Amino acid sequence: MSALWTSDEISKALSPVAAVAPFEAEGVTFDSRAVGKGDIFFALAGETSDGHSFVADALARGAAAAVVSREVEGARGTLIRVHDTMKALVDLGRAGRQRSKARIASITGSVGKTSTKDALRAMLSVQAPTSASVASYNNHVGVPISLARLPREARYGIFEIGMNHPGEIEPLARQVEAHVGVVTNVGPAHIGHMGSEEAIADEKGCVFAGMADGAVAVLNRDNRHYPRLVDKARHFGVSRIVGFGRSDAAEARLVSCNLQNSGSDVIALIHGRRIEYRLGAAGEHWVLNSVAALAALDVLGADVAKAAMALAALKALPGRGARRRLKFGAGTIELLDESYNGNPVSVGAMLAVLARTEPEGGGRRMLALGDMRELGEQADALHAGLADAVAASGAAQVFLCGPHMEALWQKLAPSQRGAHRPDSAALAAEFAAALRAGDVVAVKGSLGSKMKIVVDAVVAASGGEVGR
Ligand SMILES: Nc1ncnc2c1ncn2[C@@H]1O[C@H](COP(=O)(O)OP(=O)(O)OP(=O)(O)O)[C@@H](O)[C@H]1O
Ligand SMILES: [Mg+2]
C-alpha cells in the first residue's frame, strides 16, 4: 500500500510558507495523546489549550511532521509552517476527497448517526476497502480530519456530520461531497440552540449541499419532517429521494422485526427485494438504523444481501446501549449502559428497549436518568414529557438527577419514585444500593450529566462481569 500522504502532496494541498523536507505519512491527527508513528500532527487552537504546546512531544513520539502556524521551541523534526492550521486541515481534507475514487456517504440526524455509520461500515468493509469517521468525529475538526484520513485505495468512504448550532452542517457537507446523504431522524436534540424542530430539520437538510452529480437523499419516511427534507434536498439539486422506514411508501421498507434482548430478526424490502437478516444490536431504533444503512448501501451500488449478513455481528457500543451481565448478590443483573447520550428521542428509544426486556426470576426494571442538556426553554416540558414513556417502560423504581429532571419527578407515580438528586455523583451510591439480583438496570442521560458515574457505581457494587 502506498503512503497516505507524501510531502509533495502536502506541499501542493497546504501551500506552506517554506519548502518542506521529504517525508511520507500514514495518518493524520490533532490529538497529541493519540499520535502514532508516521502521523501528521496538526497544531490546532482548542478551547482550553493550543496544539502548538504539544508539537515537540508529538514529534518525539514519532510524528512524521507537524503543521504549525508559528515557531515552536524545542521541536525536533519536520515542521510545515502555514498561516492558519485549521484552514490547512480543511485543505488537506479537501485534497483527500478530491483524489478519492471512493463512493461516499454522509450521515446526519438528531440521533443514530454513529450507529448507522457503524452499520454501513460493517457491511461495506466485507465487500471492499472502506474508510469511515472514527467515533463521533462529526464537527468542524472531525469531518476534515476524517477526509484527510481517507486512504487513496478506499472504495467506500462514510462520514458522520453533526451540529449543535445553526449553519454548521452546510460547510461540512460541501467538504464531503457525498454521493448519498442520509438523515436518520429529526427530533428535539440541541433544540435550545436551534429554536424549533423545523429549524433542526432545515439544518439537517443542509447535508445535501454540494453533493456530487446524481446524488441521492436517504430520508426517514416515518418522520413528520420528511416533506420538509424532500424540499430541502430538491433545493440543493438532489432529485432522487429514497425513503426508509415502516411506511408502505418507503423504498427501503421495514416489513417486520422480532425484537429480542440479544438483537432482532428483521425482514426488509429494499427497492422491492426481500432481505432477511439477524441484527446483533437490540432495539427497534437499531432496526431502523440498519434499514437506513441498507438503503444507503444499495444506492452506493454494493451487494445488499451479502451486506446484511454482516449485521449479525454488530453490537451496541459502551454508553450507547451495550448490555452487560454482572454478578450481583446471589444472582446477576443486566445493565443497559446508555450513559453516553440523552435527548428526548434517544431516551424514548431506550425506554422502549427497557419495556421489552423481561427481568428474570423476580427481578425488576430499575431506571436511572440524568438531565437531557441543550433543550433551552423547552427543557422542563420535554423532561416532563417523558412521563408516559417512563410509565410504559414498566420501571419499578425511577432514580433521577439534574435540575430539569425535577419536572419529570413531579409526574412520577409515588410508588415509582426512587430518588431525585442534584447530580449523578449524589445519586450513584443510592441507586446501586437499591438494586437486587434479577434486576434489569438502565442508565441514561446527556454526556454532560455524567451518568457514567452511576454506571461505574453499579459495576463497583457488582461481583464483576459474568463469565470472567
Ligand atoms: N434511530 C434511532 N432512534 C432513536 N434513538 C436512537 C436511534 N439510534 C440511536 N438512538 C439512541 O441514541 C443514542 C446515540 O446513538 P448514536 O451514537 O448512534 O447517535 P449520534 O447521532 O451519533 O449521537 P451524537 O450526536 O452523540 O454523535 C443511542 O444510545 C440510542 O439511545
Ligand atoms: Mg455520533
Describe the structure.
It is a single chain. The chain has 468 residues and is of the alpha/beta class. It folds into three domains: 79 residues, MurE/MurF, N-terminal domain (Udp-n-acetylmuramoylalanyl-d-glutamate--2,6- Diaminopimelate Ligase, Chain: A, domain 1); 214 residues, UDP-N-acetylmuramoyl-L-alanine:D-glutamate ligase, CATH 3.40.1190.10; 140 residues, Mur ligase, C-terminal domain (Protein-Tyrosine Phosphatase, Chain A). Helices cover 33% and strands 23% of the residues. The protein contains 17 helices and 21 strands. A nine-stranded mixed beta sheet has the order 8-9-7-10-11-12-13-14-15, with helices on both faces. Strand 14 and strand 15 form a beta hairpin. Helix 3 crosses helix 5, helix 4 packs across helix 10 and helix 16 packs parallel to helix 17. The longest helix is centred in the middle third of the chain and has 17 residues. The chain starts with a strand and ends in a 7-residue tail after the last helix. It binds adenosine-5'-triphosphate (ATP) and magnesium ion (MG). Magnesium ion (MG) binds next to helix 4. The site of magnesium ion (MG) has 5 residues, from helix 4.
Question: What's the structural blueprint in terms of helices and strands?
Answer:
Layout: E1 5-6, H1 7-14, E2 24-25, E3 27-29, E4 39-42, H2 55-60, E5 65-68, E6 79-81, H3 85-99, E7 103-108, H4 113-125, E8 130-132, H5 142-148, E9 156-160, H6 169-176, E10 180-183, H7 191-194, H8 197-204, E11 216-220, H9 226-235, E12 240-245, E13 252-260, E14 263-270, E15 273-279, H10 284-300, H11 304-308, E16 322-328, E17 331-338, H12 344-356, E18 365-370, H13 379-384, H14 387-392, E19 397-401, H15 405-411, E20 417-421, H16 424-433, E21 440-444, H17 452-461
Parallel strand pairs: 3-4, 4-5, 5-6, 7-9, 7-10, 8-9, 10-11, 11-12, 12-13, 17-21, 18-19, 18-21, 19-20
Antiparallel strand pairs: 1-2, 13-14, 14-15, 16-17
Helix pairs in contact: 3-5, 4-10, 16-17
Bound molecules: adenosine-5'-triphosphate and magnesium ion (MG).
Magnesium ion binds next to helix 4.
